[in-house]
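Trying the structure run again after the queue cleared.
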Amino acid sequence: MKITRLEVFPIGLPYGRPYEQATGTAELAKRVVVKLHTDEGIVGLGEASTVLPDRTGESAEAITVILANHLGPLLLGEDPLQIQHVMQKLRRASMDKYGFPYSKAAIDLALHDIVGKALNVPVAVLLGGIVRMRIPVSRSVPITSPEETAEEALKLKALGYNLLTVKIGLDPEKDLARVAAVRRAVGDDFRVEVDANQGYRADVALRILRRMEEYGIENVEQPCPWWDLRGMAEVSRALDTTVTADESVIVPAEAMNVVRLEAADAITIKLAKCGGFLASKRIAAIADTAGLSCNMGSQHPAGIGTAAMCHFWASTPEITDVGYGAPAERFEDDVIREPIRFVDGMVYLPEGPGLGVEVDDEKLARYAIPVRVG
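Done. Tokens:
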């Protein structure tokens, strides 16, 4: 089997409401869907997703150009069954072997989809085997007023979520008020965590998070800038609450740095930011070997990226919590034919070979956004 063509489809899905976090506000979810064609007629589906451009610089527009002009041509003639070989070739395509992780993730997903379809097995089987068919998911609450945040928390609790992530990081005192309001609304026994998205300096994080611990938070995600691992370590040592590294860990080498500096108690894995299945499995192995736990974030993918998330948590027992269930949580529509099954706060592994989803070409066209690649 040989790869014959890579098709790239930049799309934009409107958020149901603007999504605000410490690093900015997103109103349109720009995603990049890929179709990887083979000479045997098997087509692999992949997706790259970013909520907001991060330190990689990979926006949907940049990803489209990288895939179409730089990485895509390197795939032609390669055997898609040899996933490691193909991804190693892409690694050598830039001076930094960890460059373009979002773009590479789309290809990694598509390769696994092809192999699963060729062997007539789910991708989760390729990743080590299925250890669970469903998992409860959490939901993040964007930055709004304390009253609005509490109201939203009550609605999400009623929908069956068993863990809520309160976004913080813009104004420490308002953040504290927001967390207090959520705790009063959902009760003492409901699970609540916070995510600062790098919004605090270490000294500010220490001062405000110690006070926030009084409200029974169980996790603090990325309190300090991604590069300040010493600050993260200081916060981690000072708090009783688990501290999780998210933006500090995009690639496996950064997971090793977190371990070396004892900068966190846990690591957030996102297939989109970490480069796909292969790299994400490496990060999970590093964390597990070092005694750190792992949770799973999303970058709010459309259906293809969500299906990939399902196969990852289904085959990775190191994952303790998942922060996303289905595109229906954020968007009014999707680009796959059958939606990911998501009921009462539980998301289910899609059935069928490969990723287990089919793309809707009409919707790909409907939500297309213009990006110049030539």
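The longest strand covers residues 3-21. Worth checking whether this holds up in the mutant runs.
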